Amino acid sequence: MFRLTVNDYVMIAHSLPHEFFGPAQQMHGATLSVEATFSRPELDEHSVVLDIGHATRLLNDALTPLRYENLDVHPDFVGRLSTTEVNAQYVGQKLASGLADLPEIGIIVTIHENPRAHVSYTVPDRT
Amino acid sequence: MFRLTVNDYVMIAHSLPHEFFGPAQQMHGATLSVEATFSRPELDEHSVVLDIGHATRLLNDALTPLRYENLDVHPDFVGRLSTTEVNAQYVGQKLASGLADLPEIGIIVTIHENPRAHVSYTVPDRT
Amino acid sequence: MFRLTVNDYVMIAHSLPHEFFGPAQQMHGATLSVEATFSRPELDEHSVVLDIGHATRLLNDALTPLRYENLDVHPDFVGRLSTTEVNAQYVGQKLASGLADLPEIGIIVTIHENPRAHVSYTVPDRT
Amino acid sequence: MFRLTVNDYVMIAHSLPHEFFGPAQQMHGATLSVEATFSRPELDEHSVVLDIGHATRLLNDALTPLRYENLDVHPDFVGRLSTTEVNAQYVGQKLASGLADLPEIGIIVTIHENPRAHVSYTVPDRT
Amino acid sequence: MFRLTVNDYVMIAHSLPHEFFGPAQQMHGATLSVEATFSRPELDEHSVVLDIGHATRLLNDALTPLRYENLDVHPDFVGRLSTTEVNAQYVGQKLASGLADLPEIGIIVTIHENPRAHVSYTVPDRT
Amino acid sequence: MFRLTVNDYVMIAHSLPHEFFGPAQQMHGATLSVEATFSRPELDEHSVVLDIGHATRLLNDALTPLRYENLDVHPDFVGRLSTTEVNAQYVGQKLASGLADLPEIGIIVTIHENPRAHVSYTVPDRT
Q1: A85 and B40 in contact (C-beta within 8 Å)?
Q2: Interface ipTM
Q3: Strand partners, A31
Q4: In this complex, do F18 and C46 lie within 8 Å of one another by their Cβ atoms?
Q5: Over the range D51-74, which residues count as b (16 or more CB within 10 Å of their CB) and which as e?
Q6: Are A118 and A112 in contact (CB under 8 A)?
Q7: Which pTM value belongs to this model?
Q8: Which of residues 51-70 of F touch E (CB under 8 A)?
Q9: CA-angle at D4, arms to D113 and F9, nearest 5°
Q10: How far apart are CA F67 and CA B23, in angstroms?
Q11: Phi and psi at residue D17, to the nearest 5°
Q12: C28–A68 C-beta distance less than 8 A
């Protein structure tokens, strides 16, 4: 099994309007440092998991809808909380769409939202 | 699959009294930078793996018995070597006790004991 | 010369409403990872620059007004842009107030706002 | 399950002579920061996955053939592209040879080739 | 005093053909992780040291001549050893040319060439 | 001005027996990640600040007396508290002795004792 991980980041504003989230109910924001990991049982004909440039563009495309955005008014987040877990799932689903033609490539998204916590999401139903 | 990782640290003294450990047989110490990873197939009703504050308190509670301690005279380490692997297992078991009511949450503990080595322990018999 | 550095972080929302800032004119946010460095020509009577607990509380006190806040509506930022440089200056001035009785301690604040850029501010008129 | 990870690095020159690789077709080089992860269901009689000194020597031995080398003229890379994925596989196979007597120890090699990408290889057919 | 630091990287091949350098006399390579620090006594009219985009482009322009290059045959390195110190000086001089119109901005270049060593160069004769 | 920084680490036990230090009065320990920075106005005849191998050996020699030691009973720490600041000074003085023949080389020692604090010491009376 081989894995390739590339990273990028976005800066977003949001609030988490439920008392469960304490002070994070207020409008605040985060730098989301995002890692996308692509896994594959065997390398392709160029001896790589995926071209790094291609992987980097896939991640950039997945993050573009989030760059410098307020997720509280973002059309893709209507009716759902933009927790870091949900954001990771959102990015993972975008990456999966971008790799719809290569279902044998597994996808994991990891988001570091602050120096003391990070989350990850493994896209299901891929090898 | 979703994962949440939080981190904390403790500073401990100990020795590893068996010739196998060479100079580490002497009384010395370590800063243990500890990551606790919690995994879950689906998010809870608040769209998170676990509240970050809750996860951080669970880790703090698991580490409290070790803070500023000499493990050579620690009651929980009588009769066993406090290798980093054993320390990770100790923290993992404490976390598992703290999450006894949520057996579907997987637990991994990672300890960085120096810049050139780290260990991890996956708590068994959890989903 | 001795230096002590402690770190903490805050998560804020803001916008930078001038065309100079391009897409950052929109409401977005950031995780600000903040380092406070205290310098001193000689150690104190306890052989430290400052008690780490004290230094950590000073930094926490300086950051508390910013935690989970939208700087666009923050009373301390009326009429000024909350660039990372200005934020570092803000934190530095708070730290200087907290150390008004110890003018021989120099203060530098460093803020990492994303993985590819950080800024720092040296408080003037201290030794 | 327990894991031990140790790290080291090598500095190599190479080229990737296929148009697929764009500017990396030119003779260039890389610092490869390498992590070797060893996993084991249960600890050994010394309460460790592997002695850290032993693990470090295994990794050093696996990397020695690559240190300060031009992989374009390296006998072990004749007829194959020295992509980071292939380099990870090369190191993994060397580690597996060094641990031929301990097949229950799993092996993963991770290589960071630049601040924005890393790859990993899991040696197959080990527990 | 305010400082802004941005980072980027290049991957180069080279050799250091003098017995002083031991095994580094051979053709090998390195990933150079480069930080450019810009300092200024007071902020500009936009409350920044320099626009981050501008700073990033300045660093990119300074690094472009080095990307994927073999410094042994690079016209800018004829007759001089491409030690990391010399490379830092090279980048610093390029940055100074790019900021010839802003001599009050100080410049420091830091290059991490492997996980266990880095160098820096302060451009002289700037404020 | 040029700087070269190399790093290494030691693992020590100690206590800080004064009520000022709270729980750190107990016997505990630390991993000290140590950076030694050497500065020089101009490069030497080999276009470096110092040979990296030489710098690494100087740091190793300075740290050897501390490796796997209990500083409470260490002959070099009789009558003084082994705070991280004092430890940095200790290492700095050892490095200065090792470079007695090169007084134009400045020396700074930085010690990271945990993920949330580090200290540094600049050796005085060197250029």
Answers
A1: no
A2: 0.96
A3: A11
A4: yes
A5: bbeebbebbeebbeebbbbbbbeb
A6: yes
A7: 0.97
A8: 51-53, 55-56
A9: 75
A10: 8
A11: -80, 70
A12: yes
